[in-house]
Structures are given as C-alpha cells and as structure tokens.
Amino acid sequence: MATIFGETSTTDAVLSGVNLRGKRVLVTGVSSGLGVETARSLAAHGAQVVGAARDLKKADAATDYVRKDATAHGGSFEVIALDLASLTSVRSCAEVLLEQGGPFDVIIANAGVMATPFGHTEDRFETQFCTNYLGHFVLVNRIAPLLRTEGRLINLATAGQWLAKVDLEDPNFERTTYDPWVAYGRAKTANILFAAAFDLRHRDSGIRAAAIHPGAIRTELYRHLDPAPLQALNDQLNKQSAAEGGKPFQYKTIPQGAATSIWAGFVAGAKEIGGRYCENCHVSPVVPDEKPMNANKGVPAYALDQKTAEALWRKSEELVGEHF
After folding, report:
1. Which of 65, 191, 220, 225 is most buried when burial is the number of CB atoms within 10 A of its CB?
2. Which residues are designated catalytic?
3. Among 187, 197, 199, which Cα is nearest to 273's?
4. What are the structural domains of the chain?
5. d(Cα 228, Cα 83) in Å, to the nearest integer?
6. Mind listing the pLDDT tens digit for each residue in 252-276?
C-alpha cells in the first residue's frame, strides 16, 4: 500500500526509500529556506542538483552542508548565478545551462519574494511580478528543451492566489494603486496559470507541470512584513478554522514546507499532478471563486482557468519580447 503523506510530512519522509541517483534537478532560490532544504533532500538521496541563486556568496555559505550530504550519499550539488529581477541575468543563466547541455528530470521554480515595497526591476517590471513569475517564465521556457521525456516543472505558489487575480491590463501597477499583497497575489496566481499552460503545451511529450503551496513557513520571505497585520491575518484564519471545527493555524517547519515540492516532483503520479495545484502532499480541489480565502483548502477556479492561462502566456511573451 502506498504511503499517505500530509501536512506534517517532511522531505526525508516523502523520499524515504527513494533512490534519486541519475536524476538531475534545477532548484531556484538556494540561498535560504525552502530552496536550501529542497536541494539538500534531493542531493542526500543521490540526485545531481543545480541550485540557482542571485547572491552566490550567500548561497555557497548556506549550502555548505548540502554539499556534504551530497558527497556522503552519491549525489552532487553546484550553484549557478540567477537574478530573477534581471532578464539579462535570466537569459545568461539559461544560455549557460543550454551550453552545458545536461538534461533535467525536474525543474523546481522555488525562488520568490513576498509583499515587497513598490519598486521596479531593471527591465521596468513591478518587482514581485517579475521576480516571482516573469523571470521564471523566461528561464523555464528557454531551457524547456533540456527537460527529459517524463520530466516535470514544479512552480511554487502559495495561498496568495486568493488575494488577487492576474491583471492583464495593468500588470505593473501603472494605473492601479499599489498594494503589496495584491501584487503578491497576482504573481502567485500567475505562477499557477503558468504551470497549467506549460502542462498543456508539453503533456503530449510526457512532460507535466504543477503548482504547489508549501504552507506557511517562517523564512526570509517574511522580511518585508509588519508583525501586526501578519498576526491579524493569523487570528482571522484561526477564527475561520474554529468556526469550521478545524485546528488552529500553525506554521510548518522548513522540511515540512519543502515536502510538497518533492512529493509533486518525484513521488506522485504524473497524471495525478499534471496541470493541478497541490498542497500538503495532495492534489487540492478546485473551489468556486467566491469562496473566502482558506489556507490549505483548495484553489480558486480562476487560478487554473485555461483561457486566462493562455491570455497570460501571450501577454508575458509580449512583455519580454520573446515567443515560446
């Protein structure tokens, strides 16, 4: 009988008994938090892991023990430069990977920022939209030829998609008053739609894509947040959960948070996760858009709508000046 995993499952629990020797994986955002743990767990089970990070010095320091685990268990780990807020850097990273020519079994688009102050990247895109979504859109599509048949793309989302739909008319807040949470919601909804569109384009060749919610984890992602409104949100979730007879809100550990990426990438069936949204090591139900936000209880229908996914894809190509 297959093991049933859930919200408290860890990376090592999900990969218990799994040998990843011969598997090659790209993980973005390996300078802290979930990215480091994702890389560690894969390398410790024999995978060849390429980690991408903006700050290579910081990433090298944060992943010293990842290399040790890799050496001890037959895996490997290396770091490559990638600044998702710079399309020049994104394209350079893609070129390096394409020149190396090594195929990937799984790409885990893990890197991101949350609720940042209003700002623009060097390409004049709103910071969260580019860092969380558009940079990955360009990188993944450029290196898509490196994905092996039966390969997978795993995009990290959050429950943030409940905060906002994508805005195809004003993605950079040129006419809309900036709200850091709305911007975050737009970007995370875009990540889910990107996975749905990518899956549709590549499933006939056996390549599948999914978006995952790791859960709420205390990492560097929280560095821009004021504790007061964050506590208010936690209180709201607790009140809602209590009204439904559920458990109090609780943060996950980093190994628990990284588990769903690993599960969707290596353990779950391809048909099970393809084109879907996953959390707590399960595929989540699609729920009506008008339902209130409820972390860990599904994905709004608009975040997986294929017409919106196609429109976002075309808009993204227009913005970056490339056709994929």
Report:
1. 191
2. 184
3. 199
4. 11-320 (3.40.50.720)
5. 31
6. 999 999 999 999 999 999 999 999 9
CA distance 104 to 111: 18
* Crossing angle (nearest 10°) for helices 87-100 and 135-143: 20
Q: What is the pTM of this model?
A: 0.93
For helices 180-202 and 135-143, give the axis angle rounded to 10 degrees: 20
Q: pLDDT tens digits for 97-151?
A: 999 999 999 999 999 999 899 999 999 999 999 999 999 999 999 999 999 999 9
* Whether the Cβ atoms of residue 18 and residue 74 lie closer than 8 Å to each other: no
Contacts for 307-314: CB closer than 8 Å, 24+ residues apart: 308/165, 308/166, 308/193, 309/193, 309/194, 309/196, 309/197, 309/200, 310/197, 311/168, 312/166, 312/168, 312/190, 312/193, 312/194, 312/197, 313/194, 313/197
Q: What is the DSSP string of 167-200?
A: -SS-TT-SSS---HHHHHHHHHHHHHHHHHHHHH
User: How many angstroms separate the CA atoms of 129 and 85, rounded?
Assistant: 9
Q: 155-192, pLDDT tens digit by residue?
A: 999 888 988 999 999 999 999 999 999 999 999 999 99
Tokens 């558009």, residue? 134
Return the closest-CA partner of residue 153 out of 115, 114, 206: 206
